Backbone:
């Protein structure tokens, strides 16, 4: 059951071979057993989850079930879910009970899925190792001394350790793809605007995008079918016809043109990662794909551009956490300014404060043109590089992350080294393109390596097809970590 | 005031747009509800919520732009103005910064002259821009011991901030501009203009200079919500600035508040402490694109504007600029005038005189606005018809009007019931005149001896004898004939 695909689980539930309550209880028991060491979940709510499971069982019994009805899903703690504590990994929201559902949560509720719990994450999604969470780091299930990646580290860990059937994540600069790579699972960041941001606590509004995390491309397709959709409450949500992201899964890869950007294959990438990625490219050739050498000349600027724009937006987005209406407020303060300063100084962690300061600086009078406006111009150049590339190829491939999972604490003192772990993923967010990561082998210490697949706007179905065909001929994605009782 | 100083004034006016829901959320904008009952998740800035633009606010902004002949930006951008304040839930206000929806326009105003022999004049004030933004909530400092209450009902209320050039040269011009703007936004139906409820708030930038010199340093008088206070505040501020300069002082740029109790202004904060608002385009909102179709729709929904009406009233109806100004002071007055004219076609001057005279005076006496006028335009038109066709005299008409105002009823019914029909029977008038001449032989002799002024005395007696019903023209003619000729 723990290694079943979502389609298989759905079939078992439909055939009443297992009930949603039993399946949910199975995962809750596993969470009880393994979460103390892995710390993948910030909040579980057994009674609420089981009540949802009972509702799902009624739907299944009445024949009103949908593909994900009764399936337990782990939700990143960035999504507001009515009645659930929603912390965003921060002390400042430690006791915040969301009074409404995010659109993504609504979509899962409407599909009859069970909310299994809220997964750990870097504070306000700012981090690449899950170490900035107020609720403590998450351990990589493949190596308890290593990070799971971030910011959706709890979600990636929960999927890899079979503490849920599948999970949601969000990706602002690689926060779905990088932890998916480091934990050996599959994750997809859709085109900007495919999933509504309503109810998803904002980090950098023009970059944030929700997406599915699971054990296979096929699972991701089923999850995205539920998550995607226009929502009038998000002005940047795209009004498009509903599509079936699983429709192209079976398509052969004959004639697929894979672009390999020379900028992604440089000495910055670890040799073990290079080896696994090369092997994956060789596998795609066997499946009928052709290789095109391409260039993304401005992608080298994506990290600095990102670290101007994302903090700028974040510095403003996080202003609402002021201790006035909800969230943490300092105990003792002299006056209004003191209340703001103490509440925010005590409520936010170091990385969040660093980014608020960077963002405040780049938006300041006299610096705006040199930083913010300049970064916006470069952002357009980066997007143009991709537009040029997609004239020559159908998908772009490369490593997701320059290395396998690094050790806990290894990059804690060096924010720039930490930021560079997203060097291959950030440009995709800046361009608003869809990108995904799929397991493509194991590197040093037996840790997973991720292959990144980047598609043109709205090419999610094609990317899932490419990933699925690869997974039909490889078994990296089926491997489970040891010591998790599977 | 010393003649060697020139006063320079510019206004920033916040008009609350009359949409039923807020500019970025679906919560109600109605005034006076219990605190925080009209603040939804978006207004409270809960984590994860997003703004969605209210199209009704955009339509109203376009209408305003068209009404002042401004260029409407085909693409404008919402920006975040970042600062911390407890009644600003998001920690930023969504406004428009470098790309506002309404560009340069102009408003022609009528300025009443202050000194007795000067004439009212027209002046065109340039409008720099107008932009859409959301209002903040309210901080309540009373009723909370050592604490501040926050009411977010007003947070997110749509505002159009209208910025003028520093084109005004006196308090009278500034007040005339504010009144014209107030009238215009109500005229085109984008703002209810309720100043007590804060629907129309003025910030006034005041500076003084020697004529021909560059602009002086300005101080901004914030949040004036009555024209009377505006006049007083400017008068005080101007005198204060002149006194300061003449005593060798310097004006520091500052924001000041007017205290109506003391009649004085005092500085709130100096601009050195001014915030760096860190404006940047709001990534939660798309740029606002205005299509030619939206422009056309707004244009089609605009009524004839006050300026056009004034021009028509003077050229077509031959009214004075002064009367035309009063009749176009509000859309209700103009509508009343035109509806009354429909009832009494062609009687433009008579109608104008009655509205600027009796009707205005009566409204003033009763402290009413035109919308509350107890007499309908149809009733007034009916009265005017009876004046024109000679059924009633002017004094009879005033009596009819008085009864109409207090008791209601149509002119014809009142004339009938009160027996106010004018006597146009020459035989009856001749009999009255004969009796008067017979009873006042001494006065008649004086008149015939050259004391012409006595004619009015005889008219008065005759009118009194006819109980005011004698047709004045006929009476005059008969009196004159009998006094002069003795027949």
Residues:
């Amino acid at each position: 059951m723990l290694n079943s695909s979502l389609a298989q689980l759905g079939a078992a539930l439909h055939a009443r071979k297992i009930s949603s309550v039993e399946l949910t209880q199975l995962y809750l028991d596993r969470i009880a057993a393994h979460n103390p060491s892995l710390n993948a979940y910030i909040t579980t709510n057994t009674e609420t989850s089981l009540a949802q499971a009972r509702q799902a069982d009624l739907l299944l019994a009445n024949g009103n079930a949908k593909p994900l009805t009764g399936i337990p899903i782990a939700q990143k703690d960035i999504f507001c879910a009515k009645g659930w504590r929603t912390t965003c990994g921060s002390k400042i929201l430690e006791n915040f009970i969301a009074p409404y559902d995010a659109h993504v949560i609504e979509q899962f509720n409407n599909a009859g899925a069970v909310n299994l719990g809220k997964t750990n994450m870097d504070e306000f999604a700012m981090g690449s190792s899950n170490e900035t969470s107020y609720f403590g780091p998450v351990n990589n299930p493949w190596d308890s001394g290593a990070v799971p990646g971030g910011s959706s580290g709890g979600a990636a860990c929960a999927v890899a350790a079979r503490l849920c059937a599948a999970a949601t994540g969000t990706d602002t600069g690689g926060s779905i793809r990088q932890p998916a790579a480091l934990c050996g699972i599959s994750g997809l960041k859709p085109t900007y605007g495919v999933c509504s941001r309503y109810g998803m606590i904002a980090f950098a509004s023009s970059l944030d995008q929700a997406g599915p995390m699971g054990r296979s491309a096929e699972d991701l397709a089923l999850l995205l079918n539920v998550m995607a959709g226009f929502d009038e409450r998000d002005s940047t949500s795209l009004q498009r016809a509903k599509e079936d992201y699983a429709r192209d899964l079976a398509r052969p890869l004959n004639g697929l043109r894979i672009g390999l950007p020379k900028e992604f294959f440089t000495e910055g990438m670890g040799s073990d990662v290079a080896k696994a990625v090369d092997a994956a490219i060789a596998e795609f050739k066997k499946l009928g794909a052709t290789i095109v050498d391409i260039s993304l000349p401005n992608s080298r600027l994506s990290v600095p551009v990102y670290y101007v724009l994302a903090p700028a937006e974040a510095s403003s987005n996080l202003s609402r956490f002021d201790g006035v209406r909800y969230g943490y407020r300092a105990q003792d303060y002299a006056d209004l300014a003191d209340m703001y300063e103490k509440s925010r100084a005590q409520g936010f962690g170091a990385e969040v404060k660093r980014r608020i300061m960077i963002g405040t600086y780049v938006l300041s009078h006299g610096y705006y043109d040199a930083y913010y406006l300049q970064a916006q111009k470069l952002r357009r150049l980066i997007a143009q590089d991709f537009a040029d590339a997609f004239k020559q190829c159908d998908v772009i491939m490369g490593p997701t992350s320059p290395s396998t999972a690094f050790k806990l604490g290894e990059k804690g003192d060096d924010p720039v080294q930490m930021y560079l772990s997203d060097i291959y993923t950030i440009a995709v967010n800046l361009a608003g393109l869809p990108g995904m990561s799929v397991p493509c082998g194991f590197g040093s210490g037996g840790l997973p390596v991720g292959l990144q697949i980047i598609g043109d706007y709205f090419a999610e179905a094609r990317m899932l097809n490419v990933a699925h065909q690869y997974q039909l001929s490889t078994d990296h994605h089926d491997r489970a970590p040891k010591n998790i009782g599977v | 005031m010393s003649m060697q100083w020139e006063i320079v004034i510019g206004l920033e006016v916040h008009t609350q747009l009359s949409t039923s829901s807020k500019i970025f959320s679906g919560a109600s904008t109605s005034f006076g509800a219990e605190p925080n009952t009209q603040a939804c998740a978006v207004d409270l800035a809960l984590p994860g919520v997003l703004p969605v633009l209210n199209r009704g606010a955009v339509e109203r902004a376009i209408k305003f732009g068209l009404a002042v002949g401004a260029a409407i930006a085909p693409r404008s951008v919402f920006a975040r103005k970042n600062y911390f304040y407890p009644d600003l839930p998001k920690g930023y206000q969504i406004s428009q910064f470098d790309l506002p929806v309404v560009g340069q326009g102009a408003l022609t105003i009528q300025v009443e002259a202050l000194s007795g022999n000067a004439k009212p004049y027209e002046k065109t004030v340039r409008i720099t821009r107008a932009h859409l933004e959301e209002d903040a909530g309210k901080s309540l400092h009373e009723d909370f011991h050592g604490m501040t209450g926050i009411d977010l009902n007003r947070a997110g209320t749509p505002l159009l901030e209208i910025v003028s050039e520093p084109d005004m040269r006196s308090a009278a011009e500034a007040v005339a501009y504010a009144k014209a703007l107030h009238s215009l936004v109500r005229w085109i139906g984008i703002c209810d203009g309720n100043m007590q409820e804060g629907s129309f708030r003025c910030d006034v930038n005041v500076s003084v200079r020697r004529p021909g010199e560059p602009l002086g340093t300005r101080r901004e008088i914030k949040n004036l919500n009555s024209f009377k206070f505006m006049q007083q505040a400017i008068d005080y501020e101007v005198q204060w600035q002149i006194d300061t300069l003449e005593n060798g002082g310097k004006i520091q740029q500052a924001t000041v508040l007017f205290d109506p109790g003391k009649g004085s202004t005092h500085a709130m904060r100096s601009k050195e402490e001014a915030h760096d608002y860190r404006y940047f385009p709001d990534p939660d909102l798309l740029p606002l694109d205005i299509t030619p179709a939206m422009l056309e729709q707004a244009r089609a929904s605009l009524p004839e504007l006050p300026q056009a009406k004034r021009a028509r009233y003077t050229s077509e109806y031959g009214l004075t600029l002064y009367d035309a100004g009063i009749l176009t002071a509000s859309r209700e007055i103009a509508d009343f005038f035109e509806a009354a004219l429909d009832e009494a076609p062609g009687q433009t001057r008579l109608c104008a005189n009655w509205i600027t005279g009796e009707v205005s005076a009566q409204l003033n006496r009763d402290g009413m606005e035109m919308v509350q006028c107890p007499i309908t335009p149809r009733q007034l038109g009916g009265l005017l018809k009876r004046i024109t066709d000679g059924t009633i005299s002017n004094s009879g008409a005033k009596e009819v009007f008085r009864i109409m105002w207090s008791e209601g009823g149509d002119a014809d019914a009142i004339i009938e019931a009160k027996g106010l029909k004018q006597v146009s029977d020459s035989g009856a008038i001749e009999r009255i005149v004969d009796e008067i001449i017979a009873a006042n032989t001494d006065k008649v002799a004086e008149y015939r001896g050259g004391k012409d002024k006595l004619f009015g005395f005889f008219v008065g007696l005759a009118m009194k004898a006819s109980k005011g019903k004698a047709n004045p023209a006929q009476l005059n003619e008969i009196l004159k004939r009998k006094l002069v000729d003795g027949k």
